[in-house]
Amino acid sequence: MSLLEVEDLRVTFTTEDGPVLAVKRMSFALESGEILALVGESGCGKSVTAMSIPRLLPTSGVEIEGAVRLGGRDLTALAERDLEALRGKEISVVFQEPMTSLNPAYTVGRQIVEVLRRHERLNSRKALDRAVELLELVGIPDARRRCDSYPHQLSGGMRQRVMIAIGVACNPKVLIADEPTTALDVTIQAGVLEVIANLRDTLGTAVVLITHDLGVVAKVADRVVVMYAGRSVEEAPVDSLFAAPQHPYTMGLIDALPSSALLRGTRRLEEIPGMVPPPTSDPDECEFAARCPRASARCTSARPALKVSEAEHRVACYHPGRKEVGRVS
Amino acid sequence: MSQVGLATAAPVVRVSQGRRLRRRFLRRPMAVIGLVLVAAFVLLALVGPLVSGDPLAQDFGARLAPPSAHHLLGTDDLGRDVFARIAHGARVSLLAGVASTALAVVVGVPIGLGAGYFRGWLDSAIMRLNDVLLAFPFLIFAVGLAAILGASLRNVVLALAIAQLPSVIRITRGEALVLRDQDFVSGAVADGARPITIMFRYLLPNSLNALIVQATVAIPGAIIGEAALSFLGLGVQPPTPSWGVMLTTAQQFLAQAPQLAIFPGLMIALATLGFNLLGDGLRDVLDPRSH
Amino acid sequence: MSAENVLTVRGLTKHYLGGSRLRGTQHVVRAVDGVDLRIAAGEILGLVGESGSGKSTVGRCVTRLTTPTSGTIELLGKDISRRSQRQLRPLRREVHIVFQDPYSSLNPRMTIGEIIAEPLRQQGIRSRRERDLGVAEMLERTGLRQEMRTRYPHELSGGQRQRVALARALIRRPRLVVADEPVSALDVSVQASILNLLLELQRDLGFSCLFISHDLSVVEFISDRIAVMYLGRIVETTSRERLFREPQHPYTQALLSAAPVPDPALARGRERVILRGDLPSAAAMPAGCRFHTRCPVAVDRCRTDDPALVGVTAPDHLVACHLVEPGRGAPDITAVRRADADHST
Ligand SMILES: Nc1ncnc2c1ncn2[C@@H]1O[C@H](COP(=O)(O)OP(=O)(O)O)[C@@H](O)[C@H]1O
Ligand SMILES: Nc1ncnc2c1ncn2[C@@H]1O[C@H](COP(=O)(O)OP(=O)(O)O)[C@@H](O)[C@H]1O
Ligand SMILES: [Mg+2]
Ligand SMILES: [Mg+2]
User: What is the ipTM of this complex?
Assistant: First the structure.
């Protein structure tokens, strides 16, 4: 049994313009101590998938189906009160923009202490000591003094570290980080990613890392789920994904990077033609077929299932693998 | 949670903006009620006088008569038909409300756009003065102006327009201030567009939503303003029918003929309510942050 | 010398007043603080640096969307740094700008056709037919369908909007295009098509480009020459090949080592240099070399002397660092990290 299992997750929003099928079907598992990256272009359903795990989506205008199991316990069956006890303690979330998630009126020390006291029954002295420890853990220098800072007195990188500190304050089993470094500069990003990797090493926290940046994936992930139009189209250990991507979409994403063109020594980037389909329907076909260089009649007649192609490497494609390039007309 | 962020990531859905706004508007019952009230008011002002008969004709046989088949809303102390007077009064109210607001917009918008776009000392000076004027409540300001200008319909419109000016300027300037820093305005500067072009081709069209909302809030204010000025004898002069004038006369007969006060009062209330509801609805529909 | 350059910038500074006078927190923000740049005809100069380093401010000065505090900006040999907007008008057609955010850079109340035609209109081209011809050509060149002409910006995707922004910027055939993070808001696949388009247009039309980005891989891909900016200054500038082959300035080295690479083996094996702390604020500029507060190899001299941007190792490789010496080349910033590690174990 895996630490966290998401099975057949479907999320549909009801909007003024009709239903939005944000997540059409997602299944994946997270092992303890693992960093699992969820990658894909904007709008493919990464954030919605992540938010459905601790049930943080709005309660009205949205329909969630499927199961989310943490240590075998089905979270979809839990009452809101039990979920509140669970959030922050067993699963915590770090968002992209730390300024909006921190309370500007309280010092960061107080905000960490609050989380600790809510879940851990520590006295305030012990909680403060632990807050300092946590800030040190995420690489904030002069942590005791920093406890008295207000969020606006910190830089973006520092705030994101504080958010992570709050996230791991109660030693959660799972940390969900939604684009935690997207708003940060590379030199700062490198430090924050290192913090996340260290947490996994020292505390054994399992991490769902959401990102659109394949460079970030390569740097810290153990395993990767590639999403396209609300589904996972490929799932693989990180080395295997970059060395031998199986889905044409994954290949497209990798080849479109400027560094890929630099490696090939050309001044032309590989493009993925066309656009992501709008999330308004769920046809029984490969939704990437319209943009795929190797699409065949089969691709549009039935949706390919996510199947094992090699050890631990799964792909939803009838024509997977690099080798087929050029062979299919 | 970052719902706003999530929603903006939505891929483009090609529904025409007009249709979407209409749908959004129709989903708000209060806004629709407002629209109906305003439409009825405008209809009354335009068509009412054509069918209602002469508002000055006196029926000496029926003074202070209650509503009847002959006089739909009864008659006043001089035997004049109240319905005819209400219908003609609607014209005065509409004129006072719409004309004064239009005048304030025509004068205030360029000032506000200029102040917001150029900033600098002129802006500071205009805004200082504006703040002083805004410190006076609208009605008191209008009463003061009307007292200076003298009583006539034209002067009522003028006084109400001037009294509205500060808030029009403030709102337009606020819009211009936000817009001037947007990239598409910088792009126009890089094109070599003249300030006049930028103000009227770039800033104004993008301030329109705010101005429409402001107008729907200002018009009922001006309608009440006209009624108040006329009530105080500073506005429309008898025998010209105006809801404010009607209220003034009704005062003396409150005990005998309360309908004389009730009908114009009700009209003022309904017209004001209509514009306010419509304005609130438009604000919700046009403001992209509200959904 | 400067005659053959499309753009020559010397000693450019732009200081803003920050804080509030009422609360007594007013201070000078030195957004750009002595920048020299030149761009030759048909050249793409990449300007790279962390956010807040002053890149956009340089772009806004060069396009005279703001007036520099001091310094000269020569566009096609004419100093535009102090011209009034009216005096600038004849030169406006020679330089254009493309912004980062494709959602705020197009007037939401105009159709795409009007938006693209707007520069021609402002240039005084009255003939509707002439403008329409120009628009048709630009739609074609930027790969947009002719029907787009009657659409409004909100009906377009981010990538399409950025194509419109390019069409608009190029319709007057400027000699210089300032592109301020033009692909930073786009997904990789869209980014690829916009970068390809920009290169293609540049080859066809031959304009020069100041390409501003915080993304090293994008800058490496697109630029002929690169300038690295830190806190309002250029700290290193040279050809693309040279910069990536032998980066000299410790900041450039740190930037290169922090940049994510899409190759797990490489990412893991790489010696990473994590810079201490954050970018200091442009309002409280460190004395001496402004990078010394984060520099892993700073020495005493760095805390007091401000290094000049000079060609030590090669005449066309300018670096502002005391530690770069002729013959010895770049300081090894990874050595410090290893020493640190040895020390602590
Ligand atoms: N609250 C919401 N209401 C309606 N649609 C939503 C909402 N949140 C997300 N969506 C839609 O769901 C889809 C997936 O969004 P998201 O998970 O945020 O994508 P990602 O994080 O991969 O960029 C998008 O089309 C988005 O517009
Ligand atoms: N209009 C302005 N007023 C005050 N400070 C500004 C203004 N524009 C930019 N700055 C400041 O100047 C510095 C450089 O900003 P910018 O040029 O936008 O950097 P970059 O584009 O490299 O991120 C920052 O510290 C920023 O806060
Ligand atoms: Mg997201
Ligand atoms: Mg910038």
Answer: 0.89
